[in-house]
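Risk mitigation, structural track. In case the binding assays with fructose -6-phosphate fail to produce interpretable data, a predicted complex structure has been prepared as a fallback.
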Amino acid sequence: MNVIITENYESMSKEAAKIVVDTMSKKINAVLGLATGSTPEGMYAELCRSYNKGEISFRAVNSVNLDEYYPISATNNQSYRYFMNKNLFDKVDINKSNTYVPNGEAKDAAAECKSYDELIASLGGIDLQILGIGRNGHIGFNEPNGELIPVTHLTSLTESTIESNSKYFPTPSDMPRSALTMGIGTILNAKKIVIMASGKEKHEAILKMLTGKVTTMWPATMLNLHNDVTLICDRRAYYGE
Ligand code: F6R
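Fallback model:
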């Protein structure tokens, strides 16, 4: 695993954006695997700045997001579709019909998951997958468990994730308790992976990942099975400062 330690959140965001720009400049129709949450917000702001300066275009890009709450309406301001529109898609020249987020309104979750994996395959796979990491080591919404599911699936969220994310909802009970998420296999199939982390609360999960071992109880450790992963983390996440 390549490791880039940055001074702070801003420099973490810039480093990650550089890798996205590099991928897009090598392949104009790159397939970007995208994440939501507070970690990549700064990276999206950097990408918007590069776009505004005329350095990059998303015209031919396809994007596939990692996950979405379930059930949730796309217009709910806590949905990941809403997040992506607000932080990136509405601000750049991407063709919205080439942006994919698992459908939190799907009637049949299993069918939605199956067609999401088929969609990724039909796009030729993911060129670059961006990831954040949960305090408990989750990636996407692959939560710690004795067994992990390789493909896109419906999953229950753990108490740790509900505690971290429920503050964004009007009341904690408004937060969905389930999500649709790419599986570990879907993520590991990406050609290149960047995982970002900022803040002391991610330190333990980063340490587990950096042991180089693999355990389903810390899902991010599964990234040790991939040969092109870059961890970009700030000093607080790396040193637990
Ligand atoms: C989001 C996602 C999650 C987050 C993780 C960290 O699409 O898949 O795994 O990356 O929960 O969230 P933040 O960045 O808010 O700390």
